[in-house]
Amino acid sequence: MKFIKLFSVAIIASYIFLYVNAQEQKSVQATISAPSNDLKTIMNGLLEDTKLLTEGIFLEDFAKIELAANNIANHPKPSPETLKKVKANLVEEMGVFKGFDMEVHNAALEIAMSASNEDLTRVVSLYHQVIDGCQSCHNQYKNRISKILKAN
Ligand code: HEC
Fold first, then answer.
1. 97 and 90 in contact (C-beta within 8 Å)?
2. Residue 8: which domain range?
3. Do 28 and 40 lie in a common domain?
4. pLDDT digits over 107-126, tens only?
5. 127 lines ligand 1 (CB under 6 A)
6. Which of 47, 66, 67 is nearest to 120 (CA)?
């Protein structure tokens, strides 16, 4: 009798554990793959994938690195309305802005390729390029664009 009681408690506990785990997995998935056109949402997705990329590097998990890098390279595009506002503000600087996006895109694509060749040294060198691309754009444009997107 006591044994059966203990046994059912253990089963219920493991169900709760599995359920909570599944919910956590779901929320991570949602932030990573949410198809949104809002720039902040896209950026937070990039942050999640950059975390995943970092984790992949330190766990030497090439599948994780490849997944994260492909997510970064193929991040959702901002909506036409958002792009219009950005273009109207940046005018001839739009090329520089896009250049930073391309820097991140190309480095991320090459990371995915290097991960499939299990070349960790190359992955880490390109990882620096990704971070540099994110940070360069933020340095020059983040506050400015943030303001104009908030104002509208
Ligand atoms: C081409 C320019 C550009 C590149 C490249 C870029 N960002 Fe951003 N990022 C922005 C702008 C502009 C904002 C401000 C958005 C806003 O406030 O509406 C921003 C904001 C952010 C934010 C803050 C979001 C919030 O909720 O306030 C995070 C996090 C972020 N970026 C992460 C990244 C990561 C990680 C990368 C590289 C993998 C990256 N960004 C690359 C332009 C860029």
1. yes
2. 1-33
3. no
4. 999 999 999 999 999 999 99
5. no
6. 66
